């Protein structure tokens, strides 16, 4: 609002008076200087006039600023020129770009302030959560297992014999020795983690096709046997024709009975044909004893590494080979579970197994055949192993389909191959010890030394 001029010194009027006094003073000084140049005595008079004028104007200015006359004079000036506004400094003028930059800067500052507030809030919440959590209990780390004791072959043998003498159960004695640190290889392997393998993947990993160790191999042997019988009969017929007479006819009839008998027995009891094929193959091979010890050594090595329970240890009466029998499952033999130990329909087992429960024994079942294939290039006797493997798979619930059984066979064979390949030197030494009628303590010492 306008400010009233009454009682307020009017600054422009005072400045005007001072300017006029200064102008008159300047004119008098110039006249005085001119008179001085002409040698006149008037400069003294002029100086006196200047002094008087200055004094008079000072008195007038003092009177105007301190008496009501000045207020009356200021009021007249205000009526003529309007109300005087109080002095305000001019506002700086900003360009459009500067104003926009200022707006952006202010918005950035506001955003930064909000983010700072949010960060402070989150920090407080985090501190509250950390304060509410229970403090962790610091415990001393315990070793993952017993400290291993590195013993010589004789020391290991002595400790195993002592443990087996004090315990009637072989598996219990071995577990006690493992807890004491004497055994490090026992239960060191694993057959868990089932996954599917194709035939190509199996052959790439092992170097031989899966048919060499699975049931298809036995069927191939039967086909070859049937082919051999038919070829021999055909030659007999041709030979009888050349002989002629009664002898040729008798020879033809006798050899014709061979394929008929072969097909009849194979249809009723194929196992008899398999035994006959194995006998003939062993006679032609000449390494039946070596194959047997390698087969048994592979079973012991696989079962030992997987920690499978041992039922008994005995010596084979025929060949003098140490024979180690494992339990059919981790929970006992098939007869204890109410299941039959051969393929085919049977009573429902009292305990139902999952697929993971039989993986260790499935690898044990096929380990002997895998070892024979690795050492000799061919498996002769695999029928018993496969009957045991099929009986294991029949325990699984829900029941496995044909494709799932085939996948399980490939996985088990590959598991056994990995264990045998990693311990090939031990496998050879075990076969030698078994052929020499070694005790279980000696074979355990071979595995651990």
Provide a brief overview of the structure.
The protein is an all-alpha fold and 449 residues long. The protein is 67% helix and 2% strand. Strands 1-2 form a two-stranded antiparallel sheet.
The rounded distance between the terminal residues' Cα atoms is: 111 Å
The topology string of helices and strands comes to HHHHHHHHHHHEEHHHHHH
Strand order across the biggest sheet? Answer: 1-2
The CATH level-2 architecture of the domain at 155-210 and 287-448 is identified as Up-down Bundle
> How large is the share of residues in beta strands?
under 5%
| Structural classification | mainly alpha
Output the CATH topology of the domain at 155-210 and 287-448.
Answer: Methane Monooxygenase Hydroxylase, Chain G, domain 1
How many E strands?
A: 2
Spans of at least 5 consecutive residues with low confidence: 1-10, 81-87
Residue share in helix: 55-70%
Mean pLDDT over the full residue set: 75
CATH class of the domain at 155-210 and 287-448: Mainly Alpha
- From the alpha carbons, calculate the radius of gyration and give it in angstroms: 59 Å
Explain how this protein is built.
Keywords: Membrane, Transmembrane, Transmembrane helix. The chain has 449 residues and is mostly helical. Among the domains are: 11-81; 155-210 and 287-448, Methane Monooxygenase Hydroxylase, Chain G, domain 1 (Up-down Bundle). 67% of the residues lie in helices and 2% in strands. It contains 17 helices and two strands. The protein has helices at residues 11-37, 42-66, 68-81, 96-132, 153-166, 170-180, 199-206, 215-243, 245-268, 270-285, 288-306, 334-337, 359-376, 383-393, 402-422, 424-435, 440-448, and strands at 310-315, 322-326. A two-stranded antiparallel ribbon has the order 1-2. β1 and β2 (322-326) form a beta hairpin. α1 (11-37) packs antiparallel against α2 (42-66) and α11 packs across α16. The longest helix has 37 residues, at 96-132. 25% of the residues are buried. Mean pLDDT is 75; it is low at 1-10 and 81-87.
